[in-house]
Amino acid sequence: DGGITQSPKYLFRKEGQNVTLSCEQNLNHDAMYWYRQDPGQGLRLIYYSQIVNDFQKGDIAEGYSVSREKKESFPLTVTSAQKNPTAFYLCASSPSSGGTYEQYFGPGTRLTVT
Amino acid sequence: SQQGEEDPQALSIQEGENATMNCSYKTSINNLQWYRQNSGRGLVHLILIRSNEREKHSGRLRVTLDTSKKSSSLLITASRAADTASYFCATDARNTDKLIFGTGTRLQVFP
Predict the structure, then answer these.
(1) How would residue B96 be classed by pLDDT, with cut points 50, 70 and 90?
(2) What pLDDT digit, counting tens, does each position of A44-76 carry?
(3) Which residues of A touch B91 (CB under 8 A)?
(4) Do A105 and B42 touch (CB under 8 A)?
(5) In A, which residues are within 8 Å of B42 by CB distance?
(6) What is the DSSP code string of A6-23?
């Protein structure tokens, strides 16, 4: 059963704590992405990775960090420096980067920080 | 940066009617994609149209692209209650390797 998994579905944290969101894919895709979605809004790109051991900042990278040590995995850490971390986080992958390829999305993680 | 803007923001129709959503963008593109998102879920790819294509069909979906006006439309024919979702366009500005998503149209189809 191929696809992208994100865990957990819901995550609650206290302000000032770092939290790591998991994203795993078994589609053998080179490119992976993290997006943030706020209520009633579109998706904003946080980070993306075109290949293992490489990643680039998206439009709203401040307060976030990522790693890409394995092709299948692209975890996102929301640090205490992120001023407004409560949001819905979506991970996606595609065979390669660029608009020629459709992106496959995970089910998302809803993070609430109080 | 927001490349695509969908119009209308929200649309309510009865089952069996057609639904049309529009997307406008700012810079030249190579490709435009449409995605669907059910409430609280991830996005699902619907259709991709290249900059040299004017129209594309997939089942009950029809997408048009007018590069001179920098706009695209998504038509869902004979809508069903199960089509209730948010629909997003996504564009790849030339010389970039990212997709930029619009703000979405929320479609409600009443049975």
Answers:
(1) confident
(2) 999 999 999 999 999 999 999 999 999 999 999
(3) 99
(4) yes
(5) 4, 90, 92, 105-108
(6) EE-SEEEE-TT--EEEEE
